[in-house]
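During the first year of the project, the team set up a workflow for recording each protein of interest as an amino acid sequence followed immediately by a discrete structure-token representation. This format lets reviewers and collaborators read both layers of information side by side without switching files. As required by the reporting guidelines, we include two representative entries from the current panel. The first entry is reproduced here exactly as it appears in our internal archive.
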Amino acid sequence: MTKTREGTDKPYVIREFAPKDAGHVIEGQLDLYRKEYGLDTEIWRRYLISAVQDFADHYDSQRDFMVVVEREGKVQGGACITPTDARTAQFRFFFLNEALRGTGLGRELFARVLVGCRERDYRHVFLWTFSTLEAARHLYRKVGFTITETKEHDDWGPMLTEERWDLDLSEVDSN
């Protein structure tokens, strides 16, 4: 379904991931993290490319779930879950092109992924993020995620504080 949203001047589609989208997801993530957070080391690029490509190569619609925002034929954002065990999923690859931020699309992607968790009978979901991603952290907190672990490192370039956020899905209203 094609929609427009206040703050956007061109229609967009939110749809399920197809393996052909992997390159666009990689490109969008690398561009975002390079421009906004200074992550541009070879180790960071290898980590991200490998993780997204592994997701695409082993995509199982019964266990994995990803939605992307497409506009003018190009993926402009996305979010996914991957299983870590039978009842736990990891939220990953959340990004939204700068031109679409502030339109509610980030919240919509996030909500759709949580529905995907429930449809796959996950009881728990977690994610890793950086302390500098304020808008995303606000969204995680609003949904009910809590920080359960932090670690500082400079493995990917600048010194970062990584945070693990966890959510028990049985404690969250599914509406």
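The second entry, processed by the same pipeline in the following quarter, appears below.
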Amino acid sequence: MPHRIGRGLALAALAIAATLTWISPAGAHHSFGAFDRSKEMTVIGTVKVWQWANPHPQMTITVTDKSAPVLGDYLFEYPAPVQMQERGFSRNLAKVGDQVKIKYNPWRNGMPGGLFNDITAPDGKSLKAHP
């Protein structure tokens, strides 16, 4: 009898873990809770990584400007590619080695970077994430 109870509990725990694994990314994906939307900051840096992919493009820039809050790499999350295309963005917005200026809402955990709001691309064109 104990074998059946142990097996049943193990199956229940596995089902709960699988459900939480499936639900957690979806909940986190649609939340702006990771960002401090009450603050907007600006940095200038060199593009290190630019990934145009679903669900959110991401850009890492290296900041060397001593007026920045932190020197080093900053990670920025962007709206979905389809939303960015509607606002005039493309995967050719920037390339590795380009210098860009980014306005953003910082991560709440203090990590450098955050939620992208506006970028001034190498050609001088400024694009906003949210109208």
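For the second entry, the following points were noted during internal review. Residues 41-128 form a domain with the OB fold (Dihydrolipoamide Acetyltransferase, E2P) fold (CATH 2.40.50.1010). The two ends are 63 Å apart (CA to CA). Both points are flagged for discussion at the upcoming steering committee meeting.
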